[in-house]
């Protein structure tokens, strides 16, 4: 119960349930052949059906159904042999049909769970209620003209998977972690690109507070949050808002709210009293979706390795720590990049060393220069080469960092850089001995102190030897020679 919040009147528990809308990766829309690809000129990807012309009939896109089945297996859920499309009726300018085709009573997927990773290194299982298929609406833009709104129907009819969690998430951290993990799974599966900036993944957060041991409180729903960071901020704001009301004896009204990132606050959009009656009914234009075993089995047999399984394999196969493995598997592209390098470097401890280099040096440079793993300024075999140079003692780990920086700037191969810049490690004992003698002669006072028992001085003297050799001395050899000469 480490998540409880201390108020003036006692302890409160935060309860959160998330509804994630994930756009299905598919060339065509859910019920029409129009392109579902993002970024086209407005209203260029719209069929008569998408525009709500009378008499048009929907034709179910089988690929989108397969994507939902695949996702169902990816979240450890039950894929239902029969599911049914319903009409959810409401009026809005960006909904030309006058209804959204969705699945209310018989969704294609039920149950399932996602194991999320918490900051304390533990994991937590969040159960999933359901996943259903539905159409997206068009996109309205209200800020391009002083008195007119514009509507782009390219998105109208694009397939969405709505994934609904149980109210089992208990903090903003857990909520963010849930979305990250779900997004990672979807991207591994190839069923949603997870691009939150383009709106391919949007989150509705239901939040309430209650005192442990009492029934759940009334929830507010924050609609359409489109970044993980905003989700965290919106939840934090909402918790504080509700806590303030409840502690002062007020009641929470069930309502829909919007998060305003520029002010970092949520605002009421509509209360539940204004909620519409959607008059759901089975869509008479569409037959029930009946799945045969062979189709389901084919999909099950072709499931890719998912992040949790990959993490376990990385820990076993490459002796990585849980933390390192977690970081590397979060994005499939990073995991693939890592494995590609590991497969080409031989030597003791190579896998661990490569993991360190990726997680520390490469990620830092990526963040600094806003790069992703597939547009790095160097080729994967260059990082392999750099690690090879460290393992075979051509350069020290310290020099390797300089080489890496140069490699990042120039795109040149590390071996070539080491050659050009004369950075080869000095392991020649006679050269190092000469440097050690110099240092001992020049630092008589410190040598005296060391011999009198002041152990810390040793580090200083090693540093001096390194300085003489411009950081290129083999540290192991330099240590040994210095120790011998002093002792
Ligand atoms: P609706 O369709 O009206 O939004 P649902 O019953 O489908 O309602 O619930 C939507 C989401 O709200 C689910 O993720 C569920 O876990 C969550 N939820 C339900 N009750 C609460 C509550 N009291 N506090 C927080 N979340 C809740
Ligand atoms: Mg809802």
Report on the structure:
This protein has 487 residues and is of the alpha+beta class. The protein has three domains: 296 residues, no CATH class; 115 residues, no CATH class; 58 residues, Orthogonal Bundle (Arc Repressor Mutant, subunit A), CATH 1.10.10.410. The protein is 39% helix and 20% strand. It is built from 15 helices and 18 strands. Strands 1, 2, 3, 7, 8, 9, 12, 13, 14, 15 and 16 form an eleven-stranded mixed β-sheet that branches. The chain has a three-stranded antiparallel β-sheet with strand order 6-5-17, with no helix packed on it. The chain has a two-stranded antiparallel sheet with strand order 4-18. Strand 10 and strand 11 form a beta hairpin. Helix 5 crosses helix 6 and helix 12 crosses helix 14. The radius of gyration is 30 Å and the shape is elongated. The chain starts with a strand and ends with a helix. The mean pLDDT is 94. Magnesium ion (MG) binds next to loops.
């Amino acid at each position: 119960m480490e998540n409880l919040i201390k108020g003036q009147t006692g302890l409160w528990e935060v309860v959160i349930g998330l509804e994630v809308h994930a756009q299905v990766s598919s060339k065509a829309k859910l019920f029409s052949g129009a392109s579902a690809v993002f970024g086209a000129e407005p209203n260029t990807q719209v069929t008569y059906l998408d525009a709500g012309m009378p008499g048009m009939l929907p034709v179910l896109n089988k690929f989108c159904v397969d994507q939902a089945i695949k996702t169902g297996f990816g979240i450890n859920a039950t894929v239902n042999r029969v599911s049914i499309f319903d009409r959810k009726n409401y009026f809005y300018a960006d909904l030309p049909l006058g209804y959204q085709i969705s699945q209310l009573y018989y969704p294609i997927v039920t149950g399932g769970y996602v194991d999320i990773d918490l900051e304390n290194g533990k994991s937590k299982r969040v159960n999933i209620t359901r996943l259903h298929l539905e159409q997206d609406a068009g996109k309205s833009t209200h800020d391009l003209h002083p008195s007119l709104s514009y509507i782009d129907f390219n998105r109208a009819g694009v397939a969405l998977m709505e994934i609904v969690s149980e109210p089992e998430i208990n903090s903003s951290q857990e909520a963010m972690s849930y979305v990250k993990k779900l997004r990672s799974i979807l991207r591994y599966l190839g069923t949603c690109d997870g691009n939150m900036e383009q709106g391919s993944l949007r989150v509705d957060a239901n939040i309430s507070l209650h005192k442990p041991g009492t029934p759940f409180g009334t929830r507010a729903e924050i609609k359409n949050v489109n970044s993980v960071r905003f989700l965290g901020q919106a939840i934090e704001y909402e918790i504080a808002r509700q806590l303030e009301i409840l502690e002062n004896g007020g009641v929470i009204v069930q309502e829909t709210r919007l998060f305003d990132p520029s002010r970092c606050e949520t605002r009421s959009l509509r209360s539940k009293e204004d909620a519409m009656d959607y008059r759901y009914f089975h869509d008479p234009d569409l037959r029930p979706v009946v799945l045969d075993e062979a189709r389901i089995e084919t999909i099950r047999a072709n499931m890719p390795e998912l992040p949790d399984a990959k993490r376990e394999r990385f820990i076993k196969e490459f002796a990585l720590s849980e933390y390192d493995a977690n970081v590397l598997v979060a994005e499939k592209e990073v995991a693939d990049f890592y494995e590609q390098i590991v497969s080409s470097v031989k030597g003791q401890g190579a896998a661990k060393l490569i993991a360190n280099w990726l997680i520390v040096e490469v990620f830092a440079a990526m963040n600094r220069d806003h790069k992703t793993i597939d547009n790095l300024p160097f080729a994967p075999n260059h990082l392999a080469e750099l690690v090879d140079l460290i393992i075979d003692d051509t350069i020290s780990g310290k020099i390797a960092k300089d080489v890496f920086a140069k490699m990042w700037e120039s795109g040149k191969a590390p071996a070539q850089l080491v050659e050009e810049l004369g950075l080869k490690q000095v392991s020649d004992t006679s050269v190092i001995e000469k440097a050690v003698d110099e240092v001992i002669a020049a630092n008589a006072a410190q040598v005296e102190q060391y011999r009198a028992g002041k152990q810390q001085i040793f580090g200083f003297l090693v540093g001096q030897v390194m300085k003489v050799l411009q950081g290129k001395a083999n540290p192991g050899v330099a240590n040994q020679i210095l120790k011998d000469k002093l002792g």
